[in-house]
Design a protein that fits this description.
The protein has 5 helices and 19 strands. It has one domain: 2,3-Dihydroxybiphenyl 1,2-Dioxygenase, domain 1, CATH 3.10.180.10. With about 300 residues, the protein is of the alpha+beta class. It has helices spanning about 20-30, 70-80, 165-175, 230-245, 310, and strands at about 5-15, 30-35, 40-45, 50-55, 60-70, 90, 95-100, 110-115, 155-160, 180-185, 195-200, 205-210, 210-215, 220-230, 250-255, 260-265, 275-280, 280-285, 290-295. The termini are far apart. A 9-stranded mixed beta sheet has the order 15-16-17-14-9-13-11-10-19. An 8-stranded mixed beta sheet has the order 2-3-4-1-5-8-7-6, with helices on one face. Bound molecules: fe (ii) ion. Fe (ii) ion binds near residues 157, 263, 275 and 277.
Length: about 300
């Protein structure tokens, strides 16, 4: 049985300073759903009740992430066949039932069903782009948006540092049914795979190029979490706004070659990396896997910036 995944649900971190983390997350574009002395729960504008959770702790650390599944029977399967916990009520806004697995690095991977959603908020009017061949905007300016926090639509994907790609890849493929979209190997050694971008298997349905990226790195933990925004215009405006607040820019605004999405990455107070993305590629089950020599991959189509800072 292939796990029927619906979408990424939330990410889970432990932080030492909830106040600082909350202030950054608000400036980034998340909305406070719940705040206590023990935890911070934030959502996007797209209708979720919970997409980022930080628990107060004695050190900053990635705890894990959650994916929503299509049916309660998927939770039963995760419990009986995959070694997950018994389904239990999820103690977060929106509720639902959850089964917890642990991946090959020990990260929590929660599967959730039955969570409630709210109504999505209206975002901005679409950009009207004038090209040499087609004019769509007449007698008015393109303007009309604020420079400020992003209007985040949903949690789209996360990138994980994994201690062994050879161990993590089969875990995510076999337990969650993910499909590799693009894989990078060490220069000249096709058998030595070290990076992979994995998508959900929804058969004929188009899904994002990846919901999970795995990057071999002995540090383990989370490399970045990524939220979808409306378009690159929103990203540029939020980039300028976060810069005015003196947060640390990490990489972007740029465009990745695989997935094609426009990205912009910022450091949060706990040392994690928060990313906005827009305009990502879609694939189906039948659209296969591409293998690349990492020395041939340009990580940002729009700049020659070395990605060193991205991984520091
Ligand atoms: Fe990303």
């Amino acid at each position: 049985m292939i796990m029927r995944l619906r979408s990424p649900h939330h990410v889970r971190f432990q932080v030492t300073d909830l106040d600082k983390q909350e202030a950054f997350a608000i400036d980034f574009g998340l909305v406070v759903q719940e705040r206590t002395s023990e935890r911070l729960v934030m959502r996007t504008c797209g209708g979720d009740r919970c997409s980022y959770v930080a628990f107060l702790g004695d050190r900053d650390a990635f705890l894990g992430f959650a994916l929503e599944v299509e049916d309660a029977s998927d939770l039963d399967h995760a419990h009986t066949a995959l070694g997950g916990t018994a389904p239990t009520p999820l103690d977060l806004p929106g509720g639902g039932m959850a089964v917890t697995l642990h991946d090959s690095d020990g990260n929590e991977v929660l599967l959730i069903h039955g969570a409630e959603r709210g109504e999505p908020e209206e975002l901005y009017a679409p950009l009207e782009i004038n090209t040499p061949f087609e004019k769509r905007r007449f007698g008015r300016n393109q303007h009309g948006r604020d420079r400020g926090p992003a209007r985040l639509w949903r949690l789209g994907h996360l990138g994980l540092f994994v201690r062994s790609f050879a161990a993590s890849k089969p875990w995510y493929e076999e337990k969650l049914g993910l499909i590799a979209s693009d894989i990078y190997h060490i220069p000249g050694q096709p058998q030595a795979q070290i990076v992979g971008f994995f998508r959900m298997n929804k058969g004929e349905e188009w899904v994002d190029h990846h919901c999970v990226a795995l990057m071999q790195d002995e540090r383990g933990g989370c490399h970045h979490i990524s939220f979808e925004v409306q378009d690159f215009e929103a990203q540029q405006r939020t980039h300028r706004y976060l810069g005015s607040k003196a947060y640390e820019p990490i990489w972007g605004v740029g465009r990745h070659p695989h997935g094609s999405h426009v990205f912009d990455v910022w450091r949060s107070p706990d040392g994690a990396r928060f990313e906005t993305f827009s305009d990502t590629d879609l694939f189906r089950e039948q659209d296969g896997t591409r293998i690349h020599d990492i020395s041939q991959v340009v990580m940002d189509e729009w700049s020659d910036d070395k990605p060193d800072r991205y991984f520091a």
